[in-house]
Amino acid sequence: MPVEFDPTRPIYLQIMDSVKKKTVRGLHAPGAQLPSVRDMAARMGVNPNTMARAYQELEREGFVETRRGEGSFVTMDPAKIDDERQQLAESARRQFTEQIRDLGLTTAQTHELFEQIDKETRKQ
Fold it and tell me: What pLDDT does 3 receive?
């Protein structure tokens, strides 16, 4: 099923983010083999060259290891995965803060919003 991509960001970066998010959420276990470039490209509805670039960049960052003749595997390094989780969380915090600031919410309104988020999170 093709994925909807944000037209304002390069697709390969969005694919990298997707792999990282799935990994930090536990959907890709440390050391798990990722689908082949062609399979993943077909699933996401992108050009295999775009997918290959995403995998190459993930490998360059040390998040994925490619083994000749075997495929691509998520890092076994739990510290690398934890670091990525922290980076994603920090990025989300910055975006959230910027959006709240742009909305001009008061401190009280922001606290109320956090209480709603906390309630929703506890339900899950």
Answer: 81
